[in-house]
Amino acid sequence: MLGADRYGFSGTIGHDAGGVLMDVAALIYAGEQTSTPWRFRLGELAWRDMVDMLKRDDLPFVGLWCDGADVHALFLPDGHPLAATLALEGGRYPALSPARVAASLYERAIYDLFGAEAMWAVDVRCLLDHDVWSAAPPLCAAPGRGGQRKGLVAFQPSDAMAAAKGRVEERGPATGDLAPPFYTRLVLSGTLVANAETQTGYAHRGIAARSRHARVEDVCRLSSRVAAGSSVAHQVAFCQAVENACNAQVEAEVALLRVALLEMERLFQHLYTLAGMARLAGAQLVASHCMALREKLVAEAAPITGSRLLMDVCIPGGLSVRDATQMGDLCARLYELGQKAYPQLVLLWREYPGLSALLGRVGRILADDLERIGLDGPVARAAGWDCDGRRMMPAYDGLWRYTSGRQNGTAEDRALLLLDEMEESLRMLDLASARIGLNAGGTVPLSMQDGEGTGLVEGPWGGVLYWVRLAHGRVAEAFCRKPETSALLVFEQALPNHEAEDAALLACSLGMNAAALDG
């Protein structure tokens, strides 16, 4: 729920000590002030009031995380961070998932990593540790022995899934293709999906553990490897969080160069997604054209950026591209190459026999459902939800304009929106090329003082947000909000009434990425 035009809150139920009506934000602000201006400590009763009020208050929820002693919930009223902190009591805390469904995945991960139990949670199944880790929970003060399960991980269905009747089909976790390991169980009624559930954790890399008490530059490098295709978005969001924690701002040209890299990444990833959708829909010719254009653009950018996947191109306070002085020329060349091929690609996509009809009957999702679950980005924009984090980044001023016009929320709408956004990215690169000079902006030296900061970036699949706590010149704790978390919930809810063979196409159109989800 990171769309800037939906950042208001309803001002509904709740009373302060004097009996005056208050909303959730006011309840949090009434808590005990911490050393961070936008984070407040609540008692358990106030936290429970917050959960109850959130059922009727549209305060945008970002994420939930734990540091071993406290649990933290982050919100974004009017696009600004607001966090509530609660001390764990006996390793437990009142769950947030009864009010915010996306919190269920965070609660399950917190239990696997820290052993902190969410009371009254809507889902208590493990998310990451399927009784195979050598130590569990690994991030608690005194980890115990891990599970004794040997061999393949067993599927652990919910009660509803276990009671479902029908023919069972399975997808994954090992598929033989390039996709990360991910398991889906389908219960079919005829050829249609009646019930569906997923299991993740196979691609867990321990990023949360590796980020604790680590050097800032090492966590920055880790951030670029969280999600393939969103590497720049994660790096820039992390760097912004560190810079905000240090009360520092980068030079205007560095911010513009970061925008150029973000739009390059959007181009590359949208082409990759469109190729995947076309391939899964049987349109191999369209897929090959998408990948051919992507390869041409990537080959042009790699010698200058230093990475085909745009990894390790951003550092706190600046950039780390191989030849920043050539970035202006690179933007101009990408625009020329893209503009030359784009019209033919769009024409091929729209006129390829049967492609539009197939995609038009897959994955129709309403904007209200996406807002409730918290999935923004192109999936939400294709359903008519006006949300784009780029409007909140000053470096986009004079470059960005909202891409809209899709309303039905089908896979076809998502594909056409990606094509529209590609054209916009090319236009922005063209404008940026005339503004980028030869000095590459320089790097701002940061004083790594103790503090907390957040950074928000609009990645190819939606808002990527980092919260960072610095202590003694290192990253004490880091939390990442990524759209893949909400995409998993949308995928599960959208699968029923689809043909089983369309599951992979639906997942591709929603930006599903098991490795990014697992962390």
UniProtKB/TrEMBL annotation:
InterPro entries: ComplexI_49kDa-like, NADH_Q_OxRdtase_suD, NADH_quin_OxRdtase_su_C/D-like, NiFe-Hase_large. One of its GO terms (molecular function) is oxidoreductase activity, acting on NAD(P)H. Keywords: Oxidoreductase. Residues 282-435 form the NADH-quinone oxidoreductase subunit D domain. It comes from the Bacteria. This is Ni,Fe-hydrogenase III large subunit. It comes from Acetobacter lovaniensis. The lineage of its organism: Bacteria, Pseudomonadati, Pseudomonadota, Alphaproteobacteria, Acetobacterales.
